Amino acid sequence: MCGIAGAVGSIDESIEKAVQRMADTQAHRGPDDSGSFVSGHGPGVAFGFRRLAIIDLSSDGHQPMHDPETGNVIVFNGEIYNYAELKRELEGDGPFRSKSDTEVLLRAYRRWGKDMLRRLRGMFGFCIYDAKRRQAFLVRDRLGIKPIYYAVVERAGKSTLLFSSELRSLLATELVAKKLDPLGVDTYLWNGFVVGPSTMVEGVSLLEPGASLTLDFDAPRARPERYWQLAPGPIQPADVAIRELARELDTAVEQHLMADVPLGVFLSGGVDSSAIAALAVRANKGKVATFHIGFDEAAFDESRYARSVAQALDTEHSEFRLTQERFRSELDAALRSLDQPTLDAINTYFVSRVVREAGFTVALAGTGGDELFGGYRSFRDLPIARRASLAARPVPESVFGRGVALANRLRGGVASEVPPQTRWGKLADALACRGDLVRLYQVSYGLYTRDFLGQLASPRVRHRASFGLTPERADTLAHSLGGEIRSEIGRLELSMFIGERLLRDSDAASMAVSLELRVPLLDHRVVEAAQAVPDAARFFPLGRKMLLRELSLNRVPPSIFDRPKAGFVLPIEVWAKDQLAPQIEQTFADRALVESAGLDADALGRLWRSFRAGAPGLYWSRIWAPYVLLDWCRREGVALA
Q1: Cβ atoms within 10 A of the Cβ of 178, count?
Q2: What is the pLDDT of residues 191-217, one digit of tens each?
Q3: What is the β-pairing status of strands 289-295 and 316-322?
Q4: Annotated active-site positions, please?
Q5: Which of 475-484, 524-533, 560-569 has the lowest mean pLDDT?
Q6: Rounded to 10 degrees, what is the CA torsion of 456, 460, 462, 464?
Q7: Rg of the chain (C-alpha set)
Q8: How does DSSP assign 35-77, residue by residue?
């Protein structure tokens, strides 16, 4: 797990220095070692690297790593979990010099070229300098666990593509303008995160999951090619599919326990993290360490459930408390960890910091269980909303729009300056979807109604996207659907909530404290195996994730999980109305900052006053999202052109 940086195309001294700055700004991702490589000035490559040593802690794992047989060079961020299996297959080509998975990648490319990708099982972002073909091969893993950002810069008629594990390191090159991308802002205001391949910075793109770039030195054009995507079906008989899923789950967790450094499991007390802890114990790799973070606020604290799971599994369990005082004192560091503005991430930052301070370098999390096994309300609510939306197709949008607006005003109260922005406040938007599942999904997760978003976004930003998506991304999502509706919802959750939000946030927040976060449930073989299970066996009874429980939690009393679902969230709403209120209010009052970030200052003021007055249908997220955006823009010096 590391930070990589590089340039492909026209290389000179200024590009070398820019790559070095990109690597230096990622020192938190790799405090154990650093390195660089330059193929030479002119058409070629320059690589920078920061290492967090996980496998083969010796200097043999140093990067950039060279293949002495071909002259190829690699920079690699991530883990190849089946590297030992691949190494055995490749040993006939000669002895290995190290015990690292990096060398296995180089050797695999030597033998199989780009076809190596179909053999890899892991999380990765890497670039290989192909000396013979005079090309660079830039790749991101299938689910998008590891990010790769890139930008093409033109200087004196020559092109250079810059890439990095973090967007902010590209800004450090001083070759990428600090300009907000209006499209990125528009998608952020809808979703609470920027929808890729766009980013918050104009001219910078995010390489999509399961995609690669083949870059010629003379003219490095960014034309991503898909090498993997989750296809609908084929559905297998339930018993066959479940047996295969069980095998893949066991294999994935056992492989994810591979490390030459201390490793632990985050245990919230819910089904997903408990399943990972149970499968880790089943793998019999020694005593499993688990961690839990609790809160003084009883409504958010699930310490007793985590403790019960740990006792049932006989893990080495540690509990830590996050108080409002510590949150306030360390909030600045948490916000600094954000590579792009996002609604989420700081919860992962605090968890990661606690685990790292306890002496662990690797942590396993249960991310993905809700999306794969139907844990969210979306699996129950969206089919109902779709039927209602289809039934409303003959009715003009203006008719039900006026009716819903009247109902919201009555429910919100006369004094409310901003109508409800929750799901029941977005009924008109849902009916306007006319049965389009992608749009319904977007409405259900959107922060604001279309009407209020039109007020909150400034004219330079609004209407850049539709329902929080570009037309191209909406089409891609629509074409990926097929089969039963809950499988379709699951694919949307994996693509949007997981791919665009949780994974990106988790990477930035955990690596900010030099912690490698692993997500076994999002191993692509597990995802494919789950996809093959019939809906009736995979999702029902809805919200219970019974299949995952049956496959992993036989040692844990079922009664522990017979309670309402509560995702791991910080009690920010409580804190925002207390200690953080002056800080948020001061930021929102900075009219120049607000307008430079693409927001309407008057609409933001109405939103803040309504939230402080306790208006119904205004959750903390509706305040937190614009605050994080403004804080990030101020820190990074990024503004609309």
Answers
A1: 14
A2: 999 999 999 999 999 999 999 999 999
A3: parallel
A4: 2
A5: 560-569
A6: -150
A7: 24
A8: EEEE--SEEEEEEEEEE---S--SGGG-SSEE-TTT--EEEEE
Q: Is 372 left (phi over 0), alpha (psi -120 to 50) or beta?
A: alpha
Q: Which two tokens stand for residue 153?
A: 């810069």
Contact between residue 269 and residue 303 where contact means Cβ atoms under 8 Å apart: yes
Supply the pTM of this predicted model: 0.95
DSSP for 394-423, please give it.
TS-HHHHHHHHHHHHHHHH-TT-SS---ST
CA distance 640 to 182: 7
**Would you state the structure tokens that stand for residue 508, as one six-digit string?**
């930035």
Structure tokens at 393: 């197709």
Residue 540's CB is within 10 A of a number of other CB atoms, namely 15
Q: What SS3 class is residue 441?
A: helix
- Quick one: tokens of 516? 């490698």
pLDDT over 80 (residue 575) = no
Per-residue pLDDT, averaged over 481-486, amounts to: 88
CA distance 201 to 212: 21
Residue 410 confidence class, pLDDT cut points 50, 70, 90: low
Mean pLDDT over 35-58 rounds to 95
Domains of the chain from N-terminus onward = 2-226 (3.60.20.10), 238-375+487-561 (3.40.50.620)
Q: Tell me the one-letter amino acid at 403.
A: G
Count of residues making up the chain? 641
Q: For 307-316, what is each residue's pLDDT tens digit?
A: 999 999 999 9
CA within 13 Å, CB half, 569: 14
**DSSP secondary structure, 120-134, as one string:** --EEEEEEEEETTTT
